[in-house]
Amino acid sequence: MNAPFVGQPVPRAEDVRFLTGRARYVDDIRPEGALHAVIARSPYGHARLLGVNKASIEGLPGIVGVIAADDIAHLPAEIPIRLAPLEGFQRFLQRPLASDRVRFVGEAVALIVATSRHAAEDALEQLEVEYEPLPAVVTYDAAREGAELLFPEAGTNVATRYSASMGDADAAFARADLVIERHMTAHRHTALPLETRGLIAHEEADGILRCWGATKVTQWNRRALAVMLGRPEHSMDLIEVDVGGGFGAKGEFYPEDFLIPFAALRFGAPVKWIEDRREHLLTTNHSREMEATVAIAFARDGTMLGMRAKVSADMGAYVRTNGGVVPAKAAQFLPGPYRMKDVALDVEALLTNKTPVGTLRGPGRYEAHFFRERLIDLAAEELGLDPAEIRRRNLLRPEDMPWSIGHLVPYEPPSAVDSSDVPAAFDAVTDAIGYEELRWEVRKPQPDGRLHGIGLACFVESSGAGPSETARVELREDGGLRVISGVSTQGQGHQTVLSQIAADAFDGGVPPSEIELLNGTASLIEGGFGTYHSRAVVVGGSAIHLAARSLRAKLLRVAAARLQLRAEDLVLAEGHLRREGSVQKLAALAEVRGWMREAGETPDATETFKPDGRTYTCGAHAAHVAVDTETGQVEVLRYIASEDVGRAINPLMVHGQAIGAAVQGIGAVFLDELVYDENGQLLTGSLADYLVATSSCFPNIESITLENSPSTLNPLGAKGAGEGGVVACAAAIANAIADALRPLGVEINHLPLGPDRLLRLIPEKPAP
Amino acid sequence: MKAPPFAYAAPASIEGALALLAAHEDAKVLAGGQSLMPALNLRLAAPSVLVDINAIPELSEVSITPAGLRLGALVRHSRIGTNSAIAGAVPLLGLAYPHIAHGPVRTRGTIGGSLAHADPSAEWPAVCLASDAVMEVRGPGGGRDVPAEEFSLGIFTTAIEPGELLVAIRFPAWPASRRAGFAEVARRDGDFAMVGAAVTVDLGADGTCTDARIVLFGASSRPVRRREAEARLRGQVPGAALLREAASLAAQGIDPPSDLHASAEYRRRVAPVMVRRALADALSLPEARLAS
Question: CA spacing 20 to 30 A to A572: which of A484, A768, B67, B262?
Fold first, then answer.
């Protein structure tokens, strides 16, 4: 098969539009006569909601109406769980508006609809809402103890607990020469897309309720909305326009995804709501807050024998659409890319009076890899082994594949790492950073007076979740292709990469520039499951590949009959049909399209791709840092991340994904942090307090894309490529800082590592 | 994040602005808007009238004379940092500038706005204090000069009385023998400092320190001179050991605030480091920059 486009660094077709201000985001849509909604939100972390006095803003200028819990009480409006429905979770679902109790600061209690956003915000200041504050639950211990309950009727703040294991951890620990055990924590932070969430809903003259601003999982969300509103799915559409970043948080079904369509129906006009940044920080899913006690059993030669861990995730106040993904995936990925067969895990999910959690790029992995990789470095130190050497002795090898990772996730079948060359990915970063020399260099006194350190971390990462994806490819009248896919796009560049796939499946006969992509909107095609778990290219791309191959076969069959030639002798090139070995063009594809019509064939093909399992990538990160022991400031001098992505459809974009992910992951080590006080008050409600990495923070990041282990689970050989850059950042940076501070006896077990936190760990020298 | 209702006026003269301020007790002055506009949009401020002074040309005037530098209150950060004559006249301005925010803030934000806002972590108030600057304040009864030392009174509080307007900042001529240093720690480049120091040291022909200004900022409710530390330098030929001593004197007795980004303990610990590094840079003593 001719494959001129896959594997090429094709520049992103969408960038011209994005960079010249011609993208169309949800806020760019300004329907005539649109009403504007703002949401009254709880100022308390935990309180009885005694009443919303709608009359208090009646008659204010521009006010159209107020919606409170009593207006939706008749609807089955619990927001359902989409993923990871662990036992017990059903008791803790969120309704779009609080009725008798608020459980986190920012929880919606009423929706105000007005003729302008200004008028709505003016009224918001006047709306009387009566609360009776309750003690807030903000710590793991308080949640477990349950002296104060978020859901008294449930009798517990423990949303779920389970144990999972593979092999015999007790036996492994019994024969250990060394056990390293630590209590460790990862900190709460969240996705910070440039574009916040936003929605416009309107029941148009044709009776269809259309909602613009949807993304990620629009078909699932439409089904959920249909149930909640009690109207048929086909009477509504969720429309995806350009999206300015998602990172896992945007596009889940949030209270507003119900409230804005509901308001549009109630007031019979378009209703628009754009999340402001404070709302984003208060209400969009948080992630990563977790504590764990992890123990690894080692033999004297550094062999990792087994692992025991207790993982507790702070879920916030409700179980939202992502269910237990965060704790369950943290537990699943704790063993990492190592030959360790004996593992015992206890997992719990705790409710607190904080914003509910969901997925954030590399959910659970970021935390798990941090916990484990720190312990490996501590073991290396105890055993007198080099941190690189102890890892090499334990890494999964190509001959171990497929490597069973057992049945560690209760809601999933047993799984296995499909293919991977972890040692090659590890060597790639140690070679690139010059590990063998650098590990000695960093020990020497530095001219800048700072302490230098080097840190390593390895990871395994899953991608390409099923169940399936469907695509249709159409031959357009002008001879170009139209690709219709159920995956959605938050800015990743799918127009470019999915066109490359379609172009190659069409033997390169139509260039990517002549291929249009329609995707995201719920009504475009049936059987679309959206974009998460790095599945758009792996699963969605494979469906497009199959559909384009199918259309190609159909087209050649028709053409062969028409021309009285054998289909095998025909080739597609430059928008034309040619005979193999000849430069003479037999017909333009536009003409062949006519032949198909005449032959009674539609010029399109639809195929569904259903993967047999998930694809697993692996890789390693290496960090060289300098720590200013007088200020606690850390400079990342060099950072290298490798990932074996199976097959890089577009190396330029894989590179960009890796660099961006690393900036996000390293930034979270030092900057991003959602801080709550003892009353459940969020103290980091603006970008003056919630700090995020900017483009100038970490300029020295390199990425290495490897293609040693093409997936055998899809026709492209592809694996996810958007999350490997983030998942090992906390691990590698923490190891590097710990290495730098080793002369001072400092251990790093907790995130984040901002200057204040780090300086506290560094013993103060007496004043001269 | 929409501002509450307010009236807007853009007078063309200082007199016009003062008349508006006199007429509306809760009026707010809009200069570069880099603090006021977010405060309005977050509804942390709700003035009845915004008096936009951007249409008053004389507030943007810069003059450099043998007597020193005079900056109109509306001079933008970027002009200070990119005009070599300004940084040449008061070198400390040039040293502090790279720490101030980012391009978009620098092109809009003004020195007068920063001084009038009086964030204790801001750079310009510390620079003014270390440079013996004088603030020219105009009110209904005429003008008055307020020395930098008496200008910043506390968090977001200055000597500007209701009805008054900061119109210019005067810096005395910079002696040829004066050296300057500036150091701060911030969470990211361009963020407000957690703690920092601005220093000047005057050296005699024999290398003896004849005078010094040591200002800590971010370490209390306003930038503060550390006179004991300054006195320790006077009459001495500064070396690394003396700088360490002066630095630790400078941080003695401070009672810094705690916030999300830095605890009081952090500020207390890092304050002397900033003083030492600023002095080391001022005096070109790189060995004094390093931890002992």
Answer: A484
Residue B1, domain member (yes or no)? no
Chain A residues contacting B via beta carbons under 8 Å: 117-118, 121-122, 125, 276-278, 449, 629-633, 670-671, 675, 683-684, 686, 688-689, 691, 693-694, 696-697, 754-756, 759-760, 764-765, 767-768
pTM of model > 0.90: yes
> Do A47 and A130 belong together in one domain?
yes
Using an 8 Å CB-CB cutoff, list chain A residues near B261. 689, 691, 754, 756
Q: What is the DSSP letter of B45?
A: -
Cβ-nearest to B292 among A670, A671, A768: A768
ipTM score here? Answer: 0.96
* Residue A475 shares a structural domain with residue A530: yes
Out of A283, A314, A343, a domain closes at A283
A124/A212 same-domain check:
yes
Same domain (yes/no): B280, B198: yes
Same domain, A630 and A663: yes
Buried b (16+ CB within 10 A) or exposed e, A122-140: bbbeebebebeebebbbeb
Query: From the CA of A279, how many Å to the nearest CA of chain B?
Result: 10
Q: Phi first, then psi: what are they for B80, rounded to 5°?
A: -65, -40
Q: Do B185 and A278 touch (CB under 8 A)?
A: no
Residue B161 CA, distance from chain mean position: 19
Q: Which residues of A touch B253 (CB under 8 A)?
A: none
Q: Looking at chain A, how many residues does it have?
A: 768
Query: Which of B142, B114, B138 lies closest to B128 in space, CA to CA?
Result: B114
Which of B1, B254, B285 should we substitute to test contact with A (largest number of A Cβ atoms within 10 Å)?
B1
Tens digit of each residue's pLDDT (9 = 90 or more) over A152-207? 999 999 999 999 999 999 999 999 999 999 999 999 999 999 999 999 999 999 99
The total domain count for chain A is 3
A440 and A501, same structural domain? no
B137 shares a domain with B199: no
Both B147 and B221 in one domain: the answer is no
- Per the structure, the complete domain to which residue A277 belongs is given by 33-136+191-283
Distance CA(A184)–CA(A367), nearest Å, equals: 10
Beta bridge partners of A49: A131
Is residue A502 domain-resident? Answer: yes
Whether residues B187 and A675 touch (CB distance < 8 A) is answered with no
- Band the pLDDT of A766: cuts 50, 70, 90: low
Per CB-CB distance under 8 Å, the chain A contacts of B187 are 670-671, 691, 754-755
Do A453 and A521 belong together in one domain?
A: no
Q: What is the pLDDT of residues B130-162, one digit of tens each?
A: 999 999 999 999 999 999 999 999 999 999 999
For residue B247, which residues of chain A lie inside 8 Å, CB to CB? none
Q: How many domains does chain B have?
A: 3
